[in-house]
């Protein structure tokens, strides 16, 4: 993947999980992993690689992450069975954490432009961005509880930060999904827009940001996220332990098996 500093760069190929377009001072990362943009382990790694590349490009001052027709429908359910192995669960958890930290600590503001589904790991990805522009017919939520597990990429901490502990608790425990126009999701959404306009509005906001003095913008982001990043380290260490142990539970197996069988899960509570 290379950057052309004077023209739009498009990393397009039939195999690319991310299409990166750079039109200084903006960069757009388009998730390109099928219709539902499933957040595989490889896609998490690619997001980190793209951000690392853009960090070295001083002419980039704001980044947009988007996906079409769905922003991101969540983690790859095919990975769930593998996580019954504690080593695999740990690897997957740490990979997700590394992606979250790279988003929070990037020098440039990142805007999530959301259309369609933004669920589970996809919502965690969006929550780690600085701003969220969301089409009003989008679907938002943490449905992991229905699979016998929980959001394991820092999402509970970040949802609590934006929604408050009580509403984040409800979202995760009940596994409900909300439309962008639902008041219960309002703390997550910075700009609610008409369907099909999320990227357009995000681009305008990113341009506004890029017109501000870059040095001050970078320092504002560091200060805004300073407390979160400091506390997140302790939280992620605890989350890793809970994540590994959760995938050892029988109900985690029940959850993904019922998903593939298109059946309602019958929980064993163990």
UniProtKB/TrEMBL annotation:
User: By its UniProt entry, which SUPFAM superfamilies does this protein fall under?
Assistant: ClpP/crotonase
Q: Which range is the signal sequence, renumbered to this chain?
A: none
Note the coiled coil stretches, chain numbering: none
GO MF terms held by the record: catalytic activity
Top-rank taxon: Bacteria
Xref: Gene3D superfamilies: 2-enoyl-CoA Hydratase, Chain A, domain 1
What family does this belong to?
Belongs to the enoyl-CoA hydratase/isomerase family.
Record CDD domains: crotonase-like
Any one GO biological process: fatty acid beta-oxidation
User: What name does the UniProt record give this protein?
Assistant: Enoyl-CoA hydratase
